[in-house]
Amino acid sequence: MSNWYSTMKILLHLLTAILLIAGTVFAGDYLRPPPRKTFHFPWDPKSSSQPQQVHISLAGDKHLRVTWVTSDGSSPSIVEYGTSPGKYSAIAQGESTKYSYLLYSSGKIHHTVIGPLQENTTYFYRCGGESPEFQLKTPPSMFPVTFAVAGDLGQTGWTKSTLDHIDQCKYDVHLLPGDLAYADYLQHRWDTFGQLVQPLASSRPWMVTQGNHEKESIPFLEDGFVSYNSRWKMPFEESGSTSNLYYSFDVAGVHIIMLGSYTPYDEYSDQYSWLKADLLKVDRKRTPWLVVLFHVPWYNSNRAHQGEGDDMMTSMEPLLYAAGVDIVFTGHVHAYERTRRVYNGKSDPCGAVHITIGDGGNREGLAHRYKQPPPEWSVFREASFGHGELKMVNSTHAFWSWHRNEDDEPVQSDQVWITSLIGSGCNTGGGHEMIRILMDS
């Protein structure tokens, strides 16, 4: 019996040692909770003219576009607004649209541009002459300015957790690099998504671009992006674009370009021509930061969606490099990854920092499998749901942080100071060399 106890004691010590070693090796690893179910909305009957799915977006200098939906086709597309609760000193008249998709017919979708507005100011507004009253805050016109960033949102319990965490962030504009509602042909999911994001999207501008889940094309029956374009109108006309799938805008000292991964992008395409023209107009003295968003990543060491962005990268990366783009945000891969400054497949001090952030909370789950060993350009990667915050402190320094959704609490898991390419000797001055490179491309 004593031999048995001695053997068990030795085995216990060995097991303890193994656990201690494992704890030392894996202490930094996060045990990810399981996926959560699709978020379900209780039935909430509203009067037919009451505004629903309210969201706002930037619409040119000192202007915002207010979008909402009503089931009453006669409801007016007006927005009353002012800087005091219940006191509206201005009124704007907008436009409306609606669409049909197979057996579905949308409500009346209103788009009304308000302004000119004061920067960094809280406004109170109501839509269509109906309650309730909403309030929004305009972005600042100077540094510092903060962006919340999260892609591939969907409508699950994790989406709700991500949105709750973003709501705790003191941000000015939300950037979303594609895959919003995950409606996937079921049009009522666009309505529930609008309801889910309304508390945030009605109070801060949401700037979005399309992903593959927005495409919804059916050969011979339905064109792609009809739902997305009808509901999420972005300032493409204000930026000289002919398509809602790619556009640009300025916030404080940042020029942001939203590109389309699912519309032609080769050198003969309208998008390519527009991008060249837009980059040539950038004044880095006025907007020293240059940021680009699109859906499919070019630099991705996850095994999911490998190579899908290669063609777009071949066409457009030389343009972004020539213009001195600082940061590129993408989605599509349901995980997080940050690179060094990179160009043409390897680290380059004049390239962009690429950040994949397709981890907002979608129903398809996380992409856990990564290439091993990681490429030399990959700095941090993790398969967890979360969101990012980008604070442009001044013309030369920005602080980026990624916050994992850990046990329903936002935990800052990656952070880095990013120095802009201004003054780096790279192509950021708008000089003759950059213009020659862009025009020759």
From TrEMBL:
Signal sequence residues: 1-27
Record's keyword annotation contains Zinc: yes
Domain Purple acid phosphatase N-terminal: 51-138
Boundaries of every Calcineurin-like phosphoesterase domain copy: 146-336
Pfam families, sorted: Metallophos, Metallophos_C, Pur_ac_phosph_N
UniProt xrefs under CDD domains: MPP_PAPs
Keywords: Glycoprotein, Hydrolase, Signal, Zinc
Gene3D superfamilies for the chain: 3.60.21.10, Purple acid phosphatase-like, N-terminal
Domain Purple acid phosphatase C-terminal: 352-409
Enzyme Commission number, as recorded: 3.1.3.2
Catalytic EC class: hydrolase
SUPFAM superfamilies in UniProt: Metallo-dependent phosphatases (SSF56300), Purple acid phosphatase, N-terminal domain (SSF49363)
Cofactor section: Zn(2+); Fe cation
Catalytic activity: a phosphate monoester + H2O = an alcohol + phosphate
Family, per entry: Belongs to the metallophosphoesterase superfamily. Purple acid phosphatase family.
Protein name listed in UniProt: Purple acid phosphatase
Taxonomic placement: Eukaryota, Viridiplantae, Streptophyta, Embryophyta, Tracheophyta
Gene responsible for this protein: PAP18_1
